[in-house]
Amino acid sequence: MHHAPSSTAADADSAYIDAAAAQLGLRITAEQRPGVTRFFVLATEMAALVQGLPLTPADEPGQVFRPVSPDLGEGAP
Asked: DSSP labels for 10-75?
């Protein structure tokens, strides 16, 4: 679910994007900025989903990541 950021959130996002780009030595053009901003908002939403998952001391990180093609579906080898 995508929500348009409030002006305060949009200002904070813009400031973060500018600071991160400066630290990385990147120049974001006016033409690129809308796409960068959309991705930043999407990444923020994805991070909120992950952060919202409850974890217990019994939960451990996966040892090996094996990507599965979306075409093969759930549980494909």
From this structure: HHHHHHHHHHHHHHHT----TTTHHHHHHHHHHHHHHHHHHHTS---TT----S------TTT-TT
Q: What is the Cα–Cα distance from 20 to 33, expressed in whole angstroms? A: 13
* Per-residue model confidence (pLDDT) at position 73: 59
First and final C-alpha spacing in the chain: 30
CA-based radius of gyration for the chain: 17
pTM above 0.70, yes or no: no
CA angle 40–23–33, rounded 5-degree value: 35
The whole-number average pLDDT for the span 10-27 is 93
Task: Name the least confident of 20-29, 44-53, 58-67.
Answer: 58-67
- C-beta separation of 1 from 40 below 8 A: no
